[in-house]
Design goal:
Blueprint (H helix, E strand, L loop, with lengths): L1 E6 L7 H14 L5 E5 L3 H17 L3 E6 L6 H11 L4 E3 L11 H12 L2 E5 L6 H11 L3 E4 L6
Parallel strand pairs: 1-2, 1-5, 2-3, 3-4, 5-6
Length: 151
């Protein structure tokens, strides 16, 4: 099973949102093996990572996977090194033929395509996270938006 996350770079975490994510994971994933695909950029990604790390503490069959949009960008090398210390593995989707300025968009779409469940932190109808959310809807993915906003 694969659970992926998408949300705004500017996101206000809360205990309520954390409880919702942990409850969702308990109900949908339980104790079965699962990969948590995380983007690693922005406030929602950081919040999702913290929630997954907490869930993994009581569910050892969970794997935290950083899905990187870049491999060759020089500044990215330090970022990847740092992420190796936090995640169980790092994946790079086959998007090397895409322009680097669109790499995050293609990475996000790839993550959605792999996912059984998509957990979102979407609060408004613009930006890359919203576009990813809309892509998940078009792909008819099982989506859980922790903010409960109908966007």
């Amino acid at each position: 099973m694969i659970v992926t996350f998408c949300g705004h770079a500017h996101f206000s975490k809360s205990e309520e949102y954390e409880r919702k994510i942990l409850t969702f994971l308990k109900e949908k994933v339980g104790d079965q093996p699962a990969d948590m695909f995380l983007g690693g950029y922005g406030a929602f990604d950081s919040f999702a990572y913290d929630c997954c790390k907490k869930y993994k503490g009581t569910h050892p069959n969970i794997s935290l996977v950083f899905v990187t949009p870049y491999l060759s960008v020089e500044y990215q090398k330090n970022h990847l090194y740092y992420q190796q210390t936090r995640y169980d593995s790092i994946l790079y989707p086959e998007i090397e033929d895409k322009p680097p300025r669109f790499a995050i968009i293609y990475r996000n779409r790839w993550m959605i395509e792999q996912a059984d469940y998509v957990i979102c932190g979407i609060t408004h109808d613009w930006g890359g996270a919203y576009q990813t959310y809309q892509y998940a809807k078009r792909k008819k993915k099982h989506i859980f938006n922790v903010t409960e906003k109908n966007i």
